[in-house]
Amino acid sequence: xxxxxxxxxxxxxxxxxxxxxxxxxxxxxxxxxxxxxxVAGLNLVVGYGGQLAIGWVALLTLGAYTASILxxxxxxxxxxxxxxxxxxxxxxxxxxxxxxxxxxxxxxxMTTLGFAxxxxxxxxxWQSVTGGGIGLPGPTLSPPFDSAWGLYFLALGLAAIVTxxxxxxxxxxxxxxxxxxxDAEVAAEASGISKARLLTIVFLFSGFxxxxxxxxxxxxxxxxxxxxxxxxxxxxxxxxxxxxxxGSILGPLLGxxxxxxxxxxxxxxxxxxxxxxxxxxxxIVLLMPGxxxxxxxxxxxxxxxxxxxIVPQPDRLRALxxxxxxxxxxxxxxxxxxxxxxxxxxxxxxxxxxxxxxGLIGPNGSGKTTTLNVISGYYAPQEGEAFLGxxxxxxxxxxxxxxxxxxxxxxxxxxxxxxxxxxxVMVGATVDGTASFMEAALTLPRYRSEERxxxxxxxxxxxxxxxxxxxxxxxxxxxxxxxxxxxxxxxLAGRPAFLLLDEPAAGLSTDEINRLGSLIKAIAAxxxxxxxxxxxxxxxxxxxxxxxVLNLGRELAAGTPADIRAHKEVVSAYLGA
Amino acid sequence: xxxxxxxxxxxxxxxxxLIGVTYNIMFSASRVMSFTAGQLxxxxxVLGAMFISRLHLPILPGMVLAxxxxxxxxxxxxxIAVRPVLKALxxxxxxxxxxxxxxxxxxxxxxxxxxxxxxxxxxxxxxEGGPWDEKFWLPVLACVATIVGLELLYRRTLVGxxxxxxxxxxxxxxxxxLPERNLRMASYALAGAVGGLAGFAGGELLLAFFANGSMLNxxxxxxxxxxxxxxxxxxxxxxxxxxVFQQAANFLMGGVVAGVAVFAVFIIVLLVAPQGLFGxxxxxxx
Lengths: 577, 286
Prior knowledge:
With 577 residues, chain A is α/β, with parallel strands linked by helices.
């Protein structure tokens, strides 16, 4: 409830504005609202998804021209024209956005900049349709929206709806998945998040709001020419989000209001406003990367308890992992994987049995992590196959593993630092989410009950690993050992049939290693098979049912811990006398 | 017709190629793609027009001052927009910091110089009007001179080899005791001069206009994307090809189609070969 106060205050201020201000302020207010309709959608792309779309003004241009042309040349109802502008914006959003799936940050920024550049040129030269440099009139509305205040309230109402929808999306599994892609892409894939599908939906949504904003912008301007859609405007949108802070709705909202109003209060600076915004962008990046949102984040400034210990509660596992008996094993058959001339795995056969703890040990460079990466789909073997039961695990498609019931952790924890511990763990349960994007945006009942289930399950996973008390804390404030257990909780939240652990004991204290050991045993006892890559021989021999020793990409020995301890070559090559 | 297309195409292409080389020099020194590359080209034209037309300096000192000014801007880029974010290279903050600085340069120019395109002085006065007009071959000459000069610098001089060492393996180069920071600053100054030369040599064609900055940013980046990051030969081939393609489309099918065609080709090539046509594949992630 407390979180809603700032929004309510802003809305109240916007609603009483007509009693204090003249028509000029209605235009300024409407402009801020129209910009926000675009920026709110763009915020999901930039602030949450981390995609540097700097040329989003292109979609505003398309929406404005579409609506204006439909009204001026085909005499369409303006509201239908706005919607048509939104549809054109949505489709173009996907076209401009999809290169983001293959291109890195700067490349993507450049493609959006290029699109905006080219679009202005086209608007200038395609005179028969756009009116060229002379332009064409924007849609005019009929009463009650034809006055300055009428348009103001229309824009304000739409802005409020868009704010509500984006806030809902940000709080849903879509918002969490976007932040996961931004800050921990590899972990997002392992949690079953399909970047392609997610970004497509978000670009559609963001393009739609930008297109609708374009139509309203044309009405507000009453006459549009290509000059109205400068790159400066695009940069203003982008900077509003960064000034506000990534992964926040309120911050960019304040940033947008600030940047729209600033020139009104500092009239002599109008000519310099873009220069100031650019300087502001530089200053924010260098001095305050968290933006306004970080300034307002009081909760995460309270000090944490300093002597914390992680006390897992394995007895809660049965309630969490209620997936029934797992009967299929993971089987690798004659897998070969070479990096250039180095054969990292050289003809490996291995079977990881359901419900057992399988240890994988060996010297550095013996192919342990590579084996794990083949199973979890990051590497494609050149020969041989990995199977789950009788099914072949698809190559190079890590995002498919979570749905097959295979979860993993990483050698260096891949955690979203700016999200709370609970949100991090909920990312692991993404694969069980079924509510659609629109259900989440409108908080329909099915989405709400599903969200409650996922939250409960993530809390259960957190109490299993012993971190329930830290659920609300930003993950980057945790200690290294706690991050390791957060990763295990995230993997468990997806209720996996198999759990692949990559050196989970590295950096843990002796006490913590013992607790980790009992936790792993309990996980296997609850029916989830565990593949444990480790260097701590004691841990391996204590808890494994079966151990494979690798050397130079091949199996050196395999058997029960007792067999391995007695194996001469293993002792001389790896364990030491 | 063909001569006109080729002359104009090679001229703008050489300018794009030089901006591509500017990107590459900065990238090699720091692994940073900077939005200031195009602005340096814009500044080359604006400063040249300012020193020669407005302040009536002779051509040679005017050119030296213009390129020197651009080199200074390159140096400032390194100090305020690149060095502070180098430690967080994986967070791509440099995209934002260099964008901010590039916009500052652009708006400052728009306000203090002019928002309208201003004429650039005629430098020599050869071939008035025809396809052999100096405005067409000057950029090509500048491009050839730059490539030959860079090649000599990198292959024949100790400093040049140090540049290559930094580009190849930053950590190893520092372990050998190379002054990495000074070399990086020198690279940025060099990039500034090359970018300035692009705008100066192409000044008679593109005029002294503040909006050339973002235009060159985009069209200068295409050769880099086509040729692969850090690959100067790729940038020159890509730049000339882009220039001729763009002018041909412009002459034959008009501005709308040319713009859309260039963008479409750019996107398709990037999607098919994200590392560029002459580039190396990306490193492993897990």
